Amino acid sequence: MITGITGQDGSYLAELLLGKGYEVHGLIRRSSTFNTSRIEHLYVDPHDPDAKLFLHYGDLSDGARLITLMAQIDPDEVYNLAAQSHVRVSFDEPEHTGDTTGIGSIRLLEAVRLAGVKCRFYQASSSEMFGASPPPQDENTLFYPRSPYGAAKVYSYWVTRNYREAYGLFAVNGILFNHESPRRGETFVTRKITRAVARIKAGTEKDLYMGNLDAIRDWGYAPEYVEGMWRMLQADEPQDFVLATGGNYSVRDFLTTAFEHAGLDWEKHVKFDERYLRPTEVDALVGDASKAESVLGWKPSVHTPDLAKIMVDADIAALEHEGRPWIDRPDLPDWT
Ligand code: NDP
Ligand code: GDR
């Protein structure tokens, strides 16, 4: 069972698990418009005897529904990926962020416990929990969150550990550093940049308004990170792991690579807008994933500069084909 299946990571994880022969159940939110574009290509009519993907309405704010679903589905593995996941937005909607990104996790853990489900549980923890602690960060680094989002993720991290210790649940935290892809939400910095590059290249846009260009991040490739999530649940013992590339790049570096890849000069197009600044910023996140490499054999192969190029190519292709390349263009390479 995957919460957040309609998001970037949920869609890649669903693909990975279906490819391994799993039956996958996803929690989706009721919305007045379709919110399933990232998983449309995986959907098979549930009346089809070959159907392996099943979607259920629900919300992390609705504990009773989570208990009902747990009892009905009786999953072997639960991946809690749902969250209000935007750090800047968490300053605008701190209470909602606490309710979904924080309390939502304990509602799901309680649903597992109360329904008596014997499953393995993955919690999508984040490098944002390290916040102001200087890099490199690993599993032993002190948490010092710098946003309502980071603080809510710290809560979820600790309740996941607590359910492991208190109830013997196989519950783990994947502490993932930033990971991106052509499916990344359009308001996160990498996708915002690569979409703008495609539009500027096509001549439909001229300027890109941005906030702090000095922030350092360690941007990896999402499909590799969902493989790491799955490995954490196959391990002999429940343990928490950092997943990261170890890369050290500024937003300015990402801009430079992305614009240059399309033959453009970012300095001619990028303008500053203070609305994209955060009241407290996380200056530098650079992860040390050596524990994941030694215990899980997990090692990322796509590093930030190549990731920027993959995303620019995909956004240019999406514009050219007036759609989402990973759905409309089966001839495109796997990374879409
Ligand atoms: P996205 O923002 O792309 O996806 C979030 C998902 O959560 C969507 O499916 C969304 O549904 C769903 N969701 C939001 N609120 C609720 C709710 N109240 N009830 C049920 N579902 C809800 O995030 P990512 O895929 O990038 O990230 C997955 C998880 O990993 C998140 O928890 C994120 O905080 C965490 N994380 C992400 C990292 C990254 O770099 N991507 C790094 C570290 C942690 P809808 O589509 O309807 O909006
Ligand atoms: P982050 O991702 O906050 O690290 O959280 P985001 O891409 O939003 O910001 C990265 C850095 O870029 C700076 N920045 C801008 N950010 C956005 N969104 N828009 C801008 O215009 C802009 N200009 C500069 C930010 O200040 C920041 O320093 C992501 C999310 O996926 C979380 O859910 C996840 O937990 C963490 O990564 C790890």
From TrEMBL:
Alphabetical list of Pfam families matching this protein: GDP_Man_Dehyd
Catalysed conversion reaction: GDP-alpha-D-mannose = GDP-4-dehydro-alpha-D-rhamnose + H2O
Presence of the UniProt keyword Lyase in the record: yes
All copies of domain NAD(P)-binding, residue ranges: 1-311
EC class name: lyase
The EC number(s) this enzyme carries: 4.2.1.47
Transmembrane segments: none
Keywords for the protein's UniProt record, in alphabetical order: Lyase, NADP
GO molecular function, one term: GDP-mannose 4,6-dehydratase activity
Cofactor field: NADP(+)
InterPro entries: GDP_Man_deHydtase, NAD(P)-bd_dom, NAD(P)-bd_dom_sf
Family classification: Belongs to the NAD(P)-dependent epimerase/dehydratase family. GDP-mannose 4,6-dehydratase subfamily.
Main function: Catalyzes the conversion of GDP-D-mannose to GDP-4-dehydro-6-deoxy-D-mannose.
Entries under HAMAP family matching the protein: GDP_Man_dehydratase (MF_00955)
Protein name: GDP-mannose 4,6-dehydratase
Organism field: Rhodococcoides corynebacterioides
Gene: gmd
